[in-house]
Amino acid sequence: MQLNYRDQLMLLKDILSEHESECCGSVAEYEQLERLIRSLMANAEVNDQLKQSLETIYTYCQNGKNSSDITDFIASHQGQLTQWLEDINALS
Fold it and tell me: Which residues contact 54 (CB under 8 A, 6 or more apart)?
């Protein structure tokens, strides 16, 4: 089943919110975020400001899935997670 633009944004926000609140995640979640972001980046509905945030989140995912301690990695990005969620809500 193909997710539409709004569904993709909701899923992105849900996973990032979980990282922010629970301070835990998995390699599979990072890989799912990467797929979502690639799909959103190809979508003409996404404005340039949101694309900049998505690029930063994509880098976070790449570094996170290769981290030796995902929990510590997420904890070190709490401020950024909060900002990304605010950006997504404001720009979408």
Answer: 37, 40, 41, 46
